[in-house]
Amino acid sequence: MLLKTLSQAAILFVAVQIGFTSFASPIKWHQMDRGLPPNTISGQPASLTLINKSGADVNVYWVKYNGTLQPYGELKKGSTKIQKTYSNSSWLIQTLDDKPLGYFRTSKGNNLAVIPERTTKAPYRTMKYNSRQGVDPIKWQKSLRNSLSGLLKINQHIEGTTATSLNAVKTSSQDRGTYLFHEMELNSTPKSRIKVVVTVPKKTKVPRPAIIVIDGHSGTRHSCYKDRGYATLLAEKGYITASTKISQHSIREENNTMMGERLLDLIRCVDLLVSMKEVNPKRIGCAGNSLGGEMAMWLGAMDERISATMSAGFLTTMDQLEQNHCRCWKFPGIRSLVDFADIYCLIAPRPLMCQNGLKERPTWFTVPIARKALKEISPIYGDFEATNNLYFVPHKGGHIIDTASMFDFFDKHFNNKIN
To answer: Which residue in 56, 73, 265, 314 is deepest, having the highest Cβ count within 10 Å?
Structure first.
């Protein structure tokens, strides 16, 4: 990447020389006091013009694809740097003693990034759920969902979806004894199609309960079914299941967010299930482990058609995931609004089970941290008078799903009588 340090008087001249002659509105400055920016993900060629109006010298870092930092030198107060980069890149600005000030997230084309003078603390968790007299939890949930939909950039994609707009096509089917295993393709957006697995029991009364099964990092739509995985066991128990890949670390369409695309693909699975005559639309659940547990949290929180959520290997805090973890969970604006507990609160009063293993690695999703987060979820279930719908399972294993308690959870809430 070409790096130039310039006086402000030379900006236009150099911009013309390297082919960048105009800017859109300045890109957003994301002020921060804690943590690190989201990872850079692949994008289109772009330029970045950094102007330091902070009143102090600063250090500039590019956040690499793996989340680590690559230094790009010092930027003196009042100075400017012009940098070739790519869209979806994160550029971190820190003090000379490496305290975070904020970051920029680039878009396609020419990006003008002005580092402002710092006058206030960065907003942090401004929509945390607080259980107190006079607070309406339903209004709080509606407001937070609207805010998160905007940050995820999914608003325009989730309104007015119909079975016809999905344009679902069955590409193959296999007889697997007690159930049929279908491969399907459907629209996630008008520009993007996704592949989905759907299993349907062969001999059972309809309509049936359905579970969206979600795999973790590096998983595919088939992973949950391999080696008699938990999705296969659910299918054998008579549940309809659906699965799609959500482990991508890139975006398909410019100006989307990666987490938004992952979530939207799962919402499309719900749309598909609702359109099937075999499915009881009031008994649709979701389940996953690790990244799958994270996405089960998001799906249960943002799609109220999910009537029961099982999230394994994920209940934690954002502070814990800032270090020694892939930061694919992070996107601009998320930490200023919420922590994970607040997202889980959006599921209430619907049934929620969280699982964490007693043998988790010490730096992963440990039970003590999970209990800390759980204490922030419990109040909203109390406010809804639905404490019996919140479950926490500290099982004896590691980073896995405890299938026995998961089956009990879904069988209880979906009244599934098939074994």
So the answer is: 314
- Say which amino acid occupies 370: A
Cα 164 to Cα 285: distance, rounded to the nearest angstrom = 23
Q: If we measure between CA atoms, which residue out of 118, 146, 166, 390 comes closest to residue 267?
A: 166
Three-state DSSP class for residue 359: coil
Token couple for 301: 């929180």
Cα 97 from Cα 326, distance rounded (Å): 25
The answer to whether the predicted template modeling score (pTM) of the entire model surpasses 0.85 is yes
Q: Which of 338, 358, 152, 364 is nearest to 259 (CA)?
A: 152
In this predicted model, what pLDDT tens digit does every residue of 60-97 receive, in sequence order?
999 999 889 999 999 999 999 999 999 999 999 999 99
Task: Provide DSSP, 243-284.
Answer: EE----SS-SSTT--HHHHHHHHHHHHHHHHHH-TTEEEEEE
Contact 214, 296 (CB under 8 A): yes
Helix, strand or coil, per DSSP, at residue 353: strand
* Length in residues, the chain: 419
Q: What 8-state DSSP symbol labels residue 219? A: -
Could you check whether the bond before residue 209 is cis, i.e. omega within 30 degrees of 0? Answer: no
285: left (phi over 0), alpha (psi -120 to 50) or beta: beta
Q: How far apart are CA 82 and CA 360, in angstroms?
A: 45
User: Binning pLDDT at 50, 70 and 90, where does residue 194 land?
Assistant: very high
